[in-house]
TrEMBL record:
It is a multi-pass membrane protein. The chain crosses the membrane at residues 41-61, 67-88, 126-149, 155-172, 184-205, 225-249, 261-283, 295-316, 336-355, 361-383, 390-411. The gene is LOC105042696. Keywords: Amino-acid transport, Membrane, Transmembrane, Transmembrane helix, Transport. It comes from the Eukaryota. GO terms for cellular component: vacuolar membrane. Residues 37-416 form the Amino acid transporter transmembrane domain. One of its GO terms (molecular function) is L-amino acid transmembrane transporter activity. The keyword Flavoprotein does not apply. InterPro entries: AA_transpt_TM. This is Amino acid transporter AVT3B. It is found in: Membrane.
Amino acid sequence: MGFESTNNDEASSSSYGLVDPTSPLLPPHPSAARLSSQPKTFANVFIAIVGSGVLGLPYTFMRTGWAAGALLLAAVAALTFHCMLLLVRTRRRLDLDDGFSKIASFGDLGLAVAGPSGRAVVDAMIVLSQAGFCVGYLIFISNTLAYLFHLPSNPSPFLAPKALYIWAMLPFQLGLNSIKTLTLLAPLSIFADVVDLGAMAVVLGEDLAVFLSHPPPLRAFAGPSVLLYGVGVAVYAFEGIGMVLPLEAEAADKAKFGRTLGLSMFLIALIYGLFGVLGYLAFGDDTRDIITTNLGTGVVTVLVQLGLCINLFFTFPVMMNPVYEVVERWFCGKRYCFWLRWLLVAAVSMSAMLVPNFADFLSLVGSSVCVVLGFVLPAAFHLKVFGMELGWCAVAADVGIVLLGVALAVAGTVSSLQQILTSKEVS
């Protein structure tokens, strides 16, 4: 996922953007010259979804089995795509004016469908998901640095090697997160995209070489007990629901937006599946929660890992920006408040110190807030707006998605918390 420069310095709920899903991305009537072609829309969807979550997929496939992991990934991709289209249809039904929608974000849609309470629910989920992504970033960075540069171990979670790296980053993050405007960080978009794609390419090449030289024993299915874990990580990996309405609003050919979105999702699912399967095929039961730490300490792999760390370090303030906008609106009347930002950065940092495993935390965030954002709310909003106009089959489908989402959120959250509480630090 990459940064996108905007004039209003707002951020996105997707993994790397500057567009706030709770605030309008576009003016009510953008000029046609600024609308996105199909290739640009395709690229924007790809950038909005693909992020650091992919690095936890091989470990997840090791836990679930390669066939079970691939099937879960495909099912989550299909359901995510369906729910993205539900959001688009709901927005179109509510507010279209000469082809340009005034509802430009998920938060706007929540307000239009369910009033202030609807917006409050979306805002709360955005805050939790964005903060969760940032906790994941710090876990990734600190675990990677602890793997590359060993420090003396300590039993205290606040003095462990990974915690020391988080403490070292904290002053710099406080400074970065005090910046009112994120425009200066926008040029890092190219760097972010190149590093992400480069990391995947290096990992895939190393995976294939290792597998061909020493194929390990593998399993296709590991049993039902780990399916919830796999669902949580898969949902996290496909999180990007907050960018769908802004992307559709700026698409030049809105009639073909669904087809473009579907093609992007299919390609992303294919890449994710290949990445997860090959990572597990290469290292078997030795697959680590961050696949790059399986690659050794060669020059290229170290550079890739450091590049990913730098990328996520500078992505952190961008991802926290939607949190600040919502929380400052709640408590400070939309006024900038540096001490509140510092408090949130400190809370996120402390949380990262307490979670030992990167993929376990991905599963928790995916199972909880991402399921609600990605499945429950789109189906509920769609059902409320269209009602019985849908027909019994469509109503049953929406109700089924809501019930499935709630069940997955409750069961998956409990399962992920149990896994985190019983996990030990990956050495």
